[in-house]
């Protein structure tokens, strides 16, 4: 037996550690609970700043506001539509950039300037006919708590405020604006048992 056969390489050890870590995450009680809740979700609602974006506000000399969005999140929301899960935003700020992005993502519900997010949430429930347990919400700060404590699947990105982290069913590994929303989309798709079906669709294109 050669030395290379007797002892695993650094790459093999690292890959084994990664596999073990992935298995621990996928089988954790918190994730299993979130997956069970995800099964009934028919609508994903999102805050914008700190969730769909990294929370930075950029202004030009012409008083034009700009924001950056991540393509991972956009594709994740597309996959949700293919899984027949509607999407929408509830944000306290107003921005033409957000309206444009929401339109690009074909979101069903777009609420901007919603200082009282609970009012917007109740209006969406009334319009959609959905029950709170059929809705998932992702927020990162105190303004989002009023909705997070009502929905069937409450989520927050890695950069969410500590008080929010303590009250949600699922916290992502990524921060807002860097693929956190995609993690929630993947969670919902997996919870519904549609991951392999959607993946095969893209493998066979």
Could you please describe the fold and organization of this structure?
The chain has helices spanning 3-6, 10-26, 29-38, 71-82, 96-104, 117-128, 145-148, 162-165, 180-191, 195-203; strands at residues 43-46, 58-59, 65-66, 86-90, 109-111, 135-138, 153-156, 170-171. It is an alpha/beta fold. The strands form 2 sheets. It has a 6-stranded parallel beta sheet, with helices on both faces. Helix 3 (29-38) crosses helix 9 (180-191). The N and C termini lie far apart (45 Å).
Task: List the main descriptive attributes of the protein structure presented here.
six-stranded parallel β-sheet; alpha/beta; single chain; 205 residues
What is the secondary structure topology, with strand pairs?
Elements lengths: L2 H4 L3 H17 L2 H10 L4 E4 L11 E2 L5 E2 L4 H12 L3 E5 L5 H9 L4 E3 L5 H12 L6 E4 L6 H4 L4 E4 L5 H4 L4 E2 L8 H12 L3 H9 L2
Parallel strand pairs: 1-4, 1-6, 4-5, 6-7, 7-8
Antiparallel strand pairs: 2-3
């Amino acid at each position: 037996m050669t030395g290379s056969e007797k002892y695993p390489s650094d790459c093999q050890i690292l890959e084994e550690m990664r596999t073990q870590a992935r298995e621990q995450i996928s089988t954790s009680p918190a994730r299993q609970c979130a997956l069970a809740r995800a099964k009934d979700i028919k609508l994903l609602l999102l805050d914008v700043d700190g969730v769909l974006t990294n929370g930075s506000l950029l202004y030009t000399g012409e008083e034009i506001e700009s924001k950056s969005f991540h393509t991972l999140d956009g594709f994740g929301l597309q996959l949700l539509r293919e899984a027949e899960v509607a999407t929408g935003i509830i944000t306290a700020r107003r921005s033409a950039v957000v309206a444009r992005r929401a339109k690009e993502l074909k979101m069903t519900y777009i609420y901007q300037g919603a200082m009282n997010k609970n009012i917007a949430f109740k209006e969406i429930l009334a319009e959609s006919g959905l029950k709170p347990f059929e809705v998932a919400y992702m927020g990162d700060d105190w303004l989002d708590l009023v909705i997070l404590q009502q929905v069937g699947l409450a989520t927050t990105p890695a950069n969410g405020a500590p008080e929010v982290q303590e009250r949600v069913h699922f916290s992502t590994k990524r921060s807002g604006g860097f693929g956190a929303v995609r993690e929630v989309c993947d969670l919902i798709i997996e919870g519904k048992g549609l991951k392999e079906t959607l993946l095969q669709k893209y493998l066979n294109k």
